[in-house]
Amino acid sequence: MKTIIVIAAVFLLASACGQQAVEEKASVADTVKKDTVALKPDNSKEGLLKQIKNLEDTLYASEKLDKKLGNRAISLYQEFHKYYWQDTLSIDFMFKAAEIADNMGYPQKAIELYQSCYDHYPQSSLAPYCLFRIGNIYQFTLNDYVEAKIAYNDCKKEYPNSPVTKDAINLLNNVAKSDKQLIEEFEKKNKIKKD
Questions:
Q1: How many domains would you assign to the chain?
Q2: Considering the domain boundaries, does residue 146 fall inside one?
Q3: pTM score
Q4: Residues 6+ apart with CB under 8 A from 163
Q5: Which of 55, 97, 169, 190 is positioned for an S-S bond with 77, CB 3.0–4.6 A?
Q6: φ and ψ at residue 45, rounded to 5 degrees
């Protein structure tokens, strides 16, 4: 009889523990489900703007550009542009995305983003700067002087009155010149005599 009572007690205890484990698993599953729902991206305009603001605050507070955060910022800027391209903020966000890509050492990505910004917003005040930055990347990062000249010429032709056009013209005139050639021209222009 004692054996039956002990076996019944062990069985009841095991059943109770098993039920508790099942309840804990269900509780954990519910929590994971709730967290997963909470982590679902908010693509509403307000949601994206909030995410961008938080990320920008973090990026600007750090001394060094964190590539993971930089990539996340680029993605958020592009996502905002994808859904809200008509919003004037989209222009700034695309330009910022290009700047971040350039600063992270991704020149092709930066060119792609500057070009996209220019193509979508040619009437924007940032459009000539997009062409100028494309020229800079080709000239100084990629050493592709042909593409640099094309970008600078486009800037000169499309935006003759832009403040950045004067710089584009100066760089256009100096693309692919050696340091020695630049120094000689500077000395000649400023009438500096060699000793």
A1: 2
A2: yes
A3: 0.71
A4: none
A5: 97
A6: -55, -45
